[in-house]
């Protein structure tokens, strides 16, 4: 016959086993849930990591592009600066040659040829305004007045204006009314030549690949 103590012991074992089984189920369920949460969190971290990496890659590429653009701009500005320096040097050399030119014999021929070309273009005039450097007036006034007379104009209609040093040499002729003006100054001729010099300079630079 089973005693009460034995029944209680057996009951306790059964109850304990039920509790143990239930606890194991709950622990297992909890572990599975935690595992699922951990996996979900892991995937989330991976996605975030990918986005961060992608974002970093984009930022790196953007920075590289910015640095490259900046470098190209600096090179371009430096190149333009060097070209301008070269052009200025060439123009300065031309100006210096022009200043030397006014002191040689060929200058007289140059001066007279330009003045005669201007006279051939002039219509009937009531008077002439001639802008000329003092040195050239002393050298060419007699020639100027004779050339004017040969064209049927009176030397008395000539009004002389002293030219500035910026002219370098040459002559500027206009009518009294100011409606006609012929600029044959050396400074004007140099300015007209500037575009030609620039064009030739760029052609030469292209030959050595400077404009690539």
Estimated helix fraction: over 70%
What pattern of helices and strands is seen along the backbone? HHEHEEEH
Largest sheet entry = 4 strands, mixed
Unreliable residue runs:
none
Mean pLDDT: 80
How is the largest sheet built, in terms of strand order? Answer: 2-1-3-4
Shape type: rod-shaped
Q: What does the radius of gyration come to?
A: 49 Å
Percentage of β-strand residues: 5-15%
Number of discrete domains: 2
Class by alpha and beta content: alpha+beta
Family: Belongs to the V-ATPase E subunit family.
Organism: Defluviitalea saccharophila
Keywords: Coiled coil, Ion transport, Transport
Coiled coil: 13-47
Quick take:
This protein is an alpha+beta fold and 212 residues long.
Give an account of the 3D structure.
- The protein is α+β, with helices and mostly antiparallel strands and 212 residues long.
- The chain has two domains: 1-101; 105-195, hypothetical protein PF0899 fold (2-Layer Sandwich).
- The protein has four helices and four strands.
- Strands 2-1-3-4 form a four-stranded mixed beta sheet.
- Strand 3 (170-175) and strand 4 form a beta hairpin.
- It is rod-shaped.
- Keywords: Coiled coil, Ion transport, Transport.
- Belongs to the V-ATPase E subunit family.
- This is V-type ATP synthase subunit E.
- It comes from Defluviitalea saccharophila.
Identify the notable features of this structure and list them briefly:
alpha+beta; rod-shaped; hypothetical protein PF0899 fold; 2 domains; 72% helix
